[in-house]
Design brief:
The complex is a heterodimer of chains A (104) and B (625).
Chain A: H1 3-23, H2 27-52, H3 55-86
Chain B: H1 2-22, H2 29-55, E1 61-71, E2 74-82, H3 84-107, H4 114-133, H5 137-155, H6 162-193, H7 200-205, H8 212-229, H9 238-241, H10 247-256, H11 261-268, H12 270-273, H13 277-298, H14 304-324, H15 328-355, H16 373-387, H17 393-407, H18 411-436, H19 451-466, H20 481-486, H21 497-522, H22 534-540, H23 545-594, H24 599-619
Antiparallel strand pairs in B: 1-2
Helix pairs in contact in B: 1-2, 1-4, 2-3, 2-4, 3-4, 3-10, 3-15, 3-19, 4-5, 5-6, 6-8, 8-11, 8-13, 10-14, 10-15, 11-15, 13-14, 13-18, 14-15, 14-17, 14-18, 15-16, 15-17, 15-19, 16-18, 16-19, 17-18, 17-21, 18-21
The chains are: A mainly alpha (104), B mainly alpha (625).
Chain lengths: 104, 625
């Protein structure tokens, strides 16, 4: 199989993740989108590792999968906490950093 | 030691200024008099010592205090040079200056600003000596500006009257016009010398580096500076107004010393002017025009000090005629003799003014011959001297100038000079006869004159009568000692003794003619000139020059300023800035909306940013070929 197909797949996955990140509000969906983008990068790493014949890439890809697992645990814990405090998982609700509008 | 001559007056000015500011109420008459008169006296002694040294054939004396500016090739030292020219200048400046300081101690005695006056006066002495003793054009310029400053301060000395302040401002501003020329000239000189030293001696040595056109420009620009300081057409209008200052100031600054700085400068740069005779002729023409012009105005003035002011301008015209025609020594000689008799005339006038309780109109004086005998005699001598009656000082110096004009075949200049000589005799004797001879008007008892005011008069009268012999030329049994001593690059004259006698005789005749005319018109019953004909009206109003300047220069400037202040500044410049501010505010409101605190929007911005950058990298920089 040619690596181009893998590149295409990675690109599609990344784009879906990006669009999901921008367009959705639910924290879980956001998390999933981020994971999707991360996975696409992982896929790229693995592909390049295969194409260039260097095992380093695959090793890092495996490492990242482990990190993703840890991250998932952390994220879920945080989200549960956020939900307990605010009774919502809508990301637009958390906008304390916004600039208060001034009247010009 | 040479630097002491300059430093001491500055130091005393500083000390007196501090003491005066410490307590402006206290008189401290003795303290101010002692320092204010003592320091110029010390400077005089020092100047004479150097004079004698140079008289003994010594080389020019140099004294460097310290390095002032050093930027690459641009090295300016605080240095002084006493060559023959500057020694002659400092000798009479300090000598006459000291006499006028003594006189001022009497004149200003009752003034509450006594200390301030002497502080300014000593500041002037220091500045003038700095100007004359300067070793390089930059130092000379510093002195040049400082005399302008002290002149400004002293003209506006009676600061409670706004017209005096106007006069001071006028003098200062008109001098700025001249200074512009001066500073342009020295900048040009520096550039064209390409860093080959910037003292007078090195400039003189390297003068051939500069081409003729540049030299001409430098010569003209320098003369513009001289025009301002020495009150020549067209920058003279400040001098008559400068008489608003105390009379000793008029005597020292606006007659004997500062106004002659322009002549000194031309003589100092004689090595330039000798290369450009065309500019010299221009200078001489301006001088002759100023001489005649001022003499005509002086003949119709009524204010004693204004007459003397115009007379000064007229005599300065003579000096410029001389230096313009290449007779630098004659010009300096006339500066020298003029300092004596003009200082004397001003001091005499001051004495009369004090005696008559500050009356300045000559037609309200009259018949003072008996009461002010000493002043009368001394002023008579000075008047004879300025009118060019032998053997008084003015005859020799003025005669030398007119002979120069005749011998260099500029007959128009010569005839203007001779005509002016007659007018000079006329208006000076008009003043003298009106003040001392004509019918007295009733008046209060005369104010007594202190000895400090009369003694300098006698000394100067003696000087006015005798100093002329220093420069008497061969035709009159002298040997032009001053010309030989100065050793300036004078143009050689080819003229027989017979012609000289003839010209001298003509001058005396013209002088006597003017004197006789004045005697006939003013000795018995003096009448103030009335505006009964067009000519008189124009002359009495000083040819409406002030009004013309006001209309053609001042008014357009005011209108322009008004336009800038009221239309351009608030509407155009401020408007532009307000528009900017408005734009920034609107933009800020817009950008404010972007920062809404929602994470996914920020992700979108990153997406957009990365996309744009990628697009740029790919398409423009061709990262992916």
């Amino acid at each position: 199989m040619s690596p181009q197909l893998f590149f295409l797949l990675a690109s599609i996955l990344f784009s879906i993740g990006l669009v999901g990140l921008v367009s959705r509000k639910n924290l879980f969906v956001l998390y999933m989108s981020i994971e999707l983008m991360l996975s696409s990068v992982n896929l790229l790493l693995a592909t390049f590792s295969k194409v260039l014949g260097d095992a380093g890439g695959s090793v890092i890809a495996l490492l990242i999968i482990a990190v993703i697992a840890a991250e998932a645990a952390l994220f879920l814990a945080m989200t549960v906490h956020i939900y307990r405090n605010n009774r919502t998982v809508d990301s637009d609700h958390f906008d304390k950093l916004r600039e208060e509008a001034h009247n010009a | 030691m040479l630097s002491l001559i300059v430093i001491l007056p500055f130091l005393s000015a500083f000390i007196m200024g501090v003491v005066y500011l410490g307590d402006t109420k206290k008189k401290r008459y003795l303290f101010y008099t002692l320092i204010g008169v003592g320091i110029p006296a010390i400077s005089t002694v020092l100047s004479f010592i150097f004079g004698i040294q140079l008289l003994g054939g010594s080389e020019p004396i140099h004294h460097t205090l310290f390095q002032w500016i050093s930027i690459g090739d641009f090295n300016i030292e605080i240095a002084f040079m006493a060559d023959r020219l500057s020694v002659v200048m400092i000798s009479f400046i300090t000598f006459i200056g000291t006499l006028i300081h003594i006189y001022a101690a009497g004149y200003m005695k009752e003034d509450e600003g006594y200390g301030k006056f002497f502080a300014y006066f000593n500041l002037f002495m220091g500045s003038m000596l700095l100007l004359v003793l300067a070793d390089n054009p930059i130092m000379m310029f510093v002195g040049w500006e400082l005399v302008g400053l002290s002149s400004y301060l002293l003209i506006g000395f009676y600061h409670k009257e706004s017209s005096n302040i106007t006069a001071a401002n006028k003098a200062f501003i008109l001098n700025r016009v001249g200074d512009f020329g001066f500073i342009m000239a020295i900048s040009l000189l520096f550039i064209s010398l390409e860093g080959s030293g910037f003292t007078f001696e090195s400039i003189k040595a390297n003068i051939s580096m500069i081409d003729h056109e540049t030299l001409t420009l430098i010569g003209i620009l320098l003369f513009v500076g001289a025009m301002g300081k020495s009150a020549q057409i067209p920058l003279y209008v400040w001098l008559p107004d400068a008489m608003a200052g105390p009379t000793p100031v008029s005597a020292l600054i606006h007659a004997a010393t500062m106004v002659t700085a322009g002549v000194y400068m031309v003589a100092r740069y004689s090595f330039i002017y000798i290369e450009i005779p065309d500019v010299g002729l221009f200078i001489a023409s301006i001088g002759a025009a100023s001489a005649l012009f001022a003499a005509i105005i002086a003949s119709y003035q009524s204010d004693i000090k204004k007459i003397l002011a115009y007379s000064t301008m007229s005599q300065l015209g003579y000096m410029f005629m001389a230096v313009g025609l290449g007779a630098y020594s004659s010009g300096i000689f006339h500066v020298f003799t003029h300092a004596f008799f003009k200082a004397l005339l001003f001091m005499g006038a001051g004495a009369v003014i004090i005696a008559l309780h500050h009356e300045q109109n000559i037609f309200k004086m009259g018949g003072l011959k008996k009461e002010l005998k000493l002043v009368y005699i001394t002023m008579f001598i000075a008047t004879l001297a300025i009118s060019g009656i032998p053997p008084f000082a003015g005859f020799f110096s003025k005669d030398a100038i007119l002979i120069t004009a005749f011998a260099s075949e500029h007959y128009i200049l010569w005839s203007i000079g001779s005509l002016t000589a007659m007018l000079t005799a006329f208006y000076m004797f008009r003043l003298l006869f009106t003040v001392f001879h004509s019918q007295p008007t009733q008046r209060k008892k005369l104010h007594a004159l202190p000895a400090t005011m009369t003694t300098p008069l006698v000394i100067l009268a003696f000087g006015s009568a005798t100093v002329g012999f220093l420069g008497a030329n061969e035709a009159y049994g002298g040997n032009s000692w001053i010309n030989t001593f100065l050793a300036l690059p004078d143009r050689a004259l080819n003229i027989s003794h017979a012609t000289e006698y003839m010209l001298g005789g003509l001058n005396v005749f013209l002088g006597l003619l003017g004197m006789g005319l004045a005697y006939k018109l003013f000795a018995q019953e003096a009448q103030e000139a009335k505006e009964d004909s067009l000519f008189r009206k124009v002359v009495i109003h000083k040819f409406y020059i002030d009004e013309i300047y006001g209309f053609f220069i001042l008014k357009p400037l005011l209108v322009l300023s008004d336009f800038i202040a009221k239309v351009m500044d608030p509407k155009i410049f401020d408007g532009f800035i307000y528009l900017n501010v408005w734009g920034y505010r609107k933009a800020a409101v817009l950008f404010n909306r972007l920062q809404n605190g929602k994470v996914r929007y920020y992700a979108l911005y990153i997406l957009i940013g990365v996309s744009v950058m990628s697009y740029y990298l790919i398409l423009k920089l061709k990262v992916m070929s």
